[in-house]
Amino acid sequence: MKLFKSLLVAPATLGLLAPISAIATEVNLDEISNYSDVESIEFANSFKTDELAESQLIAGGEGMVDSHNHDSDSFSETTTASFSVDFAIGALDGKGTTTTVTDGDETLQAVYGFQIDLNTSFTGEDSLDISLDAGNGVTSSGSLTGPLAEFDLNGGSEALTVDGVSYTFPVGDKMTVIVGDNTDGSAMFTTACAYGGPSNTLDDCANVNAGITNGGLAVGASYEIGNGFTAAVGYAGAETGILTEGVMDAYGANLFYDGGSYGVSVTYGIIEQTATTENTYTALNGYYSFDNGLSISAGYEVGDLGGGTALADETEAYFIGVNGEVGPGELGAAIGTAGVTTESSGNMIERLMYEAYYSYEVNDGMTVTPLVYVKEGTSATDTDETGMMVKTSFSF
Question: Is the distance from CB of 312 to CB of 341 less than 8 angstroms?
Fold first, then answer.
């Protein structure tokens, strides 16, 4: 456990990560950061031929003009950009069968993630959103998919890539529609969960599959029924074929009730597996917030595997979490299934996960979050997995 003790100085070691560079072709992020004293930046750039020399926006910032004086062929004054960087350092003790750590127990690892969010509005009520990611926090193989996989860091490579494009707009006074690529089909769903833990597993609040996340093309809509009720629907498919036989589509619906200090939601999802089989999932979630700032959340999901056998055709997931302000930060703890529990030979074999975290906001742009978690093993060869890690997040 000596290695775990080293995590106490983790924030200081983040300075060692300074040489890491995420370089995007044709974009000088170092120079752009000079203008990042506020959370959002207004970009205005006129492309009139006779004013090109004085109004062209380049890496050094030349050409940023007064947003009150630009005309119709300039960037919209509502266009904003926000930036975030996450550094994480952590170690793992124990090896479950789902862990890919190959260098022995207590391997200390460090990773990062970077994200740019671009947003603009054309009517004041709509929103065009583009997300650009980079980082080494998610890899297809190797030890980085072990303990630090629980921190949902951005980026699967150190090349800046487009992570999603979506357009949201109102239809009438009560309906909102979203169309996007590489976007969740459940983008307009509302899950009744006040728990916002940092782990990649339990932050689903047991709504694991019902809230469809196929990526690819997505279309969704939400409707304000009134009296606290909101309904939403969503569809997700592949770019190679929309509503086409042989392409795995996903559909979902969600109903949410906001009671002020409490909320309840039910979510139903259908995910096609083959041209003739599909899995269906139903998730029920709820939360209650006390006057002292403490909140308790719970969730339960059951699934029916259309392609499963008679003895293995069901899944279930459950979760309960508590979080609230303690001192200058937020303290939270949760217990739940590690993903979903799948029926095997007529029995449910559970693998539980426990976690505790403390999120401390150093200032408006920096937050430090330590996390400790345990995933139970299910057999002598699938041992318990204990992870300790610290994430430092910057937003600017």
Answer: no
**Which CATH number goes with the domain that contains 206?**
2.40.160.10
**Residue 51: what are its φ and ψ, rounded to 5°?**
-120, 10
- Cα–Cα distance between 3 and 270 in angstroms, integer? 44
Backbone phi, psi, residue 8, to 5°: -65, -25
What average pLDDT does the structure give for the chain? 77
pTM of the full structure: 0.75
Which string of b and e fits 15-48 if b means at least 16 CB within 10 Å? Answer: eeeeeeebeeeeeebeebeeebeeeebbbbbbee
Our CA dihedral for 178, 184, 190, 194, rounded to 10 degrees, sits at -140
Report pLDDT digits (tens) over 146-195. Answer: 556 787 777 667 888 898 999 999 999 999 999 999 889 999 999 999 99
Q: Quick check: is 244 in a domain? A: yes
Numbers of helices and strands, H then E, in the chain: 4, 18
Domain presence at residue 311: yes
